[in-house]
Amino acid sequence: YTVIVWIYKIFYKREYVMNKVDIFPEALFSSLIDIPMFSQIDRADLGDLPGICDLYSFEPGELIIVEGVSCSSIFTLLSGEVDILKKGQMKELIKINTLKNGATFGETSIFLNEPSTATVRAKSLSLIMALSREKFAAYVNSHPHAGLVIMTYIVFGLLDKLRSSNEVIAYEKEFLVSAEDLEAMKSLFPPTVDEILST
Fold first, then answer.
1. 99 phi and psi, to 5 degrees?
2. How far is 125 from 185, CA to CA, in rounded Å?
3. Residue 20 bridge partners (DSSP)
4. Each residue of 52-108: pLDDT tens digit?
5. Is the separation of the CB atoms in 77 and 126 below 8 Å?
């Protein structure tokens, strides 16, 4: 556990919406320097980040982002795990990936101002930092070096998610025909090789 999780477990205060967590910016700063993306940012630049972010906690099974619904923030996972889910051919949710500490998500809504391309659901108790589109843009513009570091990590994260998505899509396409479909099709053909050859 990082410093922030320890303080969060003892002192956090929930509000009625999205389980918002109140915590001192200094405690958040102490946690951010342990995350690879933020550890590469100059401390002076990083120090301005906690004051413009919001923190939320999510219980296992709670939805953070819903596919097809617009979201106005980019999220960083400070502790816990979240599952990335996509609707399959039959509209069922298929797990694409599981993200862990330090991962970011919600990029589509931030960069393209379009509905989310996937659902994100807490797999375990998760503490998540949210930065609105407006504050993200303002921070990146006023801290160009920090912005470059963050954007680089986001791009690599997106490439990793794309690779995971492609693997799952390829797997799903292999099995578009269900066992029930196969059983139904079997009734259209003679049951034995001899009967097939004799027709």
1. -100, 145
2. 45
3. 56
4. 999 999 999 999 999 988 888 999 999 999 999 988 777 788 888 899 988 999 887
5. yes
What is the predicted pLDDT for the residue at 66? 92
pLDDT at 7: 43
Polymer length of the chain: 199
> Taking Cα atoms as reference points, which of 124, 127, 143 lies closest to residue 135?
143
HSE, side-chain direction, 13 A CA sphere, residue 19: 16
Q: How far is CA 16 from CA 20, 56, 57, 181, 183, in A?
A: 8, 11, 12, 47, 50
| DSSP secondary structure string for all residues of 141-169 | HH-HHHHHHHHHHHHHHHHHHHHHHHHHH
pLDDT tens, residue by residue, 172-192:
544 444 556 545 545 555 555
| Residue 85 burial class via C-beta count within 10 angstroms: exposed 0-12, middle 13-18, buried 19 and up | buried
Q: What's the distance, Cα to Cα, between the start and end of the chain in Å?
A: 70
Structure tokens at 158: 């997106």
- Going by C-alpha positions, the residue among 2, 47, 24, 75 that lies closest to residue 146 is 47
What does the DSSP assignment read for 20-71?
A: EE---HHHHHHHHTTSHHHHTS-HHHHTTSGGG-EEEEE-TT-EEE-TTS--
pLDDT recorded at residue 22? 78
Helix (H) or strand (E) holding 104: strand 104-105
